[in-house]
Amino acid sequence: MSWLSGIFVYQYIDMLDINKIREDFPILKRKVNDRPLVYLDNAATSQTPKQVIEAIVDYYENYNANIHRGVHTLSQEATDKYEQARIKIQKHFNAAKPYEIIFTSGTTHSINLVANGFAALLEDGDEIIVSAMEHHSNIVPWQMLCERTGTILKVIPMNMEGDLMMEEYEKMLSNKTKVVFCNHVSNALGTINPIDEIIKKAHGVGAAVLIDGAQAASHIVADMQALDVDFYTCSAHKICGPTGVGMLYGKEEWLNKLPPYQGGGEMIAEVTFEKTTYADLPHKFEAGTPNICGGIAFGAALDYMHQIGFKNIAEYEADLLAYATSELLKIEGLKIYGTAQRKTSVISFNIEGVHPYDIGTILDKLGIAVRTGHHCAQPIMDFYKIPGTVRASFSFYNTMAEVDTLVEGVQRARNMLL
Amino acid sequence: MSWLSGIFVYQYIDMLDINKIREDFPILKRKVNDRPLVYLDNAATSQTPKQVIEAIVDYYENYNANIHRGVHTLSQEATDKYEQARIKIQKHFNAAKPYEIIFTSGTTHSINLVANGFAALLEDGDEIIVSAMEHHSNIVPWQMLCERTGTILKVIPMNMEGDLMMEEYEKMLSNKTKVVFCNHVSNALGTINPIDEIIKKAHGVGAAVLIDGAQAASHIVADMQALDVDFYTCSAHKICGPTGVGMLYGKEEWLNKLPPYQGGGEMIAEVTFEKTTYADLPHKFEAGTPNICGGIAFGAALDYMHQIGFKNIAEYEADLLAYATSELLKIEGLKIYGTAQRKTSVISFNIEGVHPYDIGTILDKLGIAVRTGHHCAQPIMDFYKIPGTVRASFSFYNTMAEVDTLVEGVQRARNMLL
Amino acid sequence: MQIKEIQEEIIDEFSMFDDWMQRYEYMIELGKSLPLIEDAYKTDDNIIKGCQSKVWVHAELQDDKLVFTADSDAIITKGIIAILIRAFSNQKPKDIIEADTDFIDKIGLKEHLSPTRANGLVSMIKQLKLYAVAYQTQIK
Amino acid sequence: MQIKEIQEEIIDEFSMFDDWMQRYEYMIELGKSLPLIEDAYKTDDNIIKGCQSKVWVHAELQDDKLVFTADSDAIITKGIIAILIRAFSNQKPKDIIEADTDFIDKIGLKEHLSPTRANGLVSMIKQLKLYAVAYQTQIK
Ligand SMILES: Cc1ncc(COP(=O)(O)O)c(C=O)c1O
Ligand SMILES: Cc1ncc(COP(=O)(O)O)c(C=O)c1O
């Protein structure tokens, strides 16, 4: 249909012109403590290009309206743009149907939606499997589910490098296994998990699989149909999009099986005080006025990323990672946590005898933004018996010069603190 | 503390300069079908002043970062602004504590949070009471609760004017009553409900009260402590704020009683695979990365509204309502649904023999945006035995001239359609 | 007449109008001439989803041709379905399945062509074609 | 010395530095001179909430004065709590309760004063004052 055309302009640039790309990000011109901002907290949230900011402004200045069921032009325009964004997301993730993409307020919301739904499908004694390197958002909702249903939670262990022990995983699987949930990429370690294999093995015993793609989405294009995954989720704010919106992919058959999560407008077909029937997908899971502007800006963010090209991004980020890793390792006493073969551009580290918080504080004074702490992955910290790490996470708009600034900064912090 | 100062500048203007106010709303300059946009769908979503759009742009251009636990400057700035927004909301609603304000993704989310929480507190045979004029968002979550717990749902009936029958309400109350939930203002009728009385009577039998303030918030300042209400909620997108964010007020003691709704980052104190403990208020209910920009812009929207002055707004909107009502009633066969004494500036109507959808379509051709349909309040439509209504809802940035355009438009539609 | 020819005829008729009011008034006229569905067929099963107003459509095979009747509680919707029925009724299922729907655009109803429109024009076309597919198999 | 005087002294000391590095280095030095809490008091109960690093504080009444000891696993945090303890320890509960905390701002640690800061300076002040309130009642 004509209104769909022109959505995807994949324009692969062979070599990234980083300076030009940086022009797209107004915030990168900022000074922090009188120094140029070096933003290396991309795994927490990515920065927002002007193309996305413009999409947001365009929405509020030109066609802000409540969507669906509206007869007037603004409402129709907003609805069209919102549904076009859904289709952009569908194409990006190669989902079979647009209505397999559910807009949520973020990864946490998505996982809760699924975990809550399974409460209706699981029985006492059923088992679910989680990996040892999950974000709290992919642990706590399932623990809450277990409390409600008497389901048993099993944990795939990891080794010191930060790789999952797949033999252990295989041993855990049985016909009692009902759901396996695991992140595509670990936010604290950067490990890219073998989700292909995890999914296949789980399907072998008839279990459903949810993959938390929050950390993967800005680095790797996941193909829903090729992976044959049952659920996949991510947050827009980590992919150059706005805060407050995310997506849940669910296979049609699973989305039909799960009961609705929230009740409200939009998600119903018919309401009387005696009986309410639910609407079709995707509306069944989209109660209330959604983050309309957020959904549209999420689509704009994907457009932007495709314009840069995910292949280019991956190659460039691999270079950043390799360079930063080798430079950081030159610092005495510096230890990197997460040394898996397959990693995204995330480096978690500590310096012997120094608390990560101290390093983060000194780096901030130097204009360098890193994250310190447990990164909402306490079990990983417990595993390594550390209070936390310093995490530097790189994006395609970071430069090699910024890596140098980081390394100098860490060196300087070490000198001050030891 | 010094970082709090300067948040509230109440600058009451005695008479509203509507033309000047309209300059604040870029969208009002738009043409629809070659005619100037006349936006009368404010009850569905309000328009966004440039002050709020600027707050959004400022966020993404200058201090976009993930909040809480971040050591670096951007994260601190974003956290401060976000928490300042919470305090703006607290002051606006006169809540006793800032942590009694929970950020949610909107009214629907807020109500689901509360209804889900009560699932842990109610027993088979307990009763909950709803009004006959609720939005689906304040019906369906409670129906889902009833299904889960065996709680009984009772309905306060209304009369033809669209007033609740308070004697019936009193008769329903007993020591079995555990929750009463009711909107402050009906979105389909405009009725301002006697929530003061509803709350007092409910408290008389020890029941908690949730007031859905989605429609009230842009017209009436509700005082949490004076009302002594247990829960109150609204959505930012109906008060000149952005989409995808809202708030839930809950009395501290109730928020402590309710179990958490979603699991994830931020809402925990300690996570191990064996046991998880929850964080203090408000974090217990704010799992995952919130709509950071949305929360901040919500605060900016309240600042804007206070600058105009809620008293001024209420007076001016009352004038708009009176004028529009008397002019519309001059049209032959036009009937208004919702003729309560106390109403906000919402007019739901039909013309005898004409389907509301047809009127809405013709009005749209004339550049006039109204809503048609059941307004997510099917029980009200069933009560009046109509398929829906045409709803014109006025805001402080609408003009008397726009009322004239509406009336002419409806007249013209009538001539075409009959 | 073939579908293509009828569509040309409709385009011709609409091309005489130079503003939306005339077009809508004509559409409303057409609505009044809609071959009405029998009350017995005004069932929930025959309601087309995705419309804010109710639209019922019934299809019947007469010899090798498909005949549509319909109704709606909104007059503009009735006009729209009337136009569709005029173009598609009394045609072979195969021709209905293969028919283009560009003419909607050409008579100035493009605004109704988005799948998200509340009037459900897209759903109506889809439904007529689905009937054709269903009856197509019946003929063989 | 009175709290006020100690604070002036601290302000004087810090005023000698003209960049943050010197200030932080001095703070780290001060951290090293912190009156350390006994291991027996390093319990979860004595941890101050709202800090990314761990901070333990213990309070003890000696005659009519409150004596604080503390520790932290992060050295900058240790420096901060050391400064606070220098200002507030060995003082009467009443004086601690009434004491100003403006000096934090004046020694260039203003950035740590927001209640949302991960280092929890605000929580630390609050905790010291809470101890003072608790022991105040004990004296009477
Ligand atoms: C009275 C009432 N309650 C609840 C809602 C739901 O609000 P939201 O869609 O923002 O969640 C609305 C909005 O349409 C409303 O008018
Ligand atoms: C792996 C992983 N899962 C889940 C989340 C939670 O995402 P959000 O906070 O956007 O809901 C994050 C983000 O920190 C993450 O890194």
From TrEMBL, chains C, D:
UniProt lineage: Bacteria, Pseudomonadati, Bacteroidota, Flavobacteriia, Flavobacteriales
Gene3D superfamilies per record: 3.90.1010.10
The species this protein was found in: Maribacter flavus
Protein name stated in the entry: SufE family protein
Similarity comment: Belongs to the SufE family.
Residue ranges of domain Fe-S metabolism associated in the record: 12-129
InterPro entries referenced in this protein's UniProt entry, alphabetically: Fe-S_metab-assoc_dom
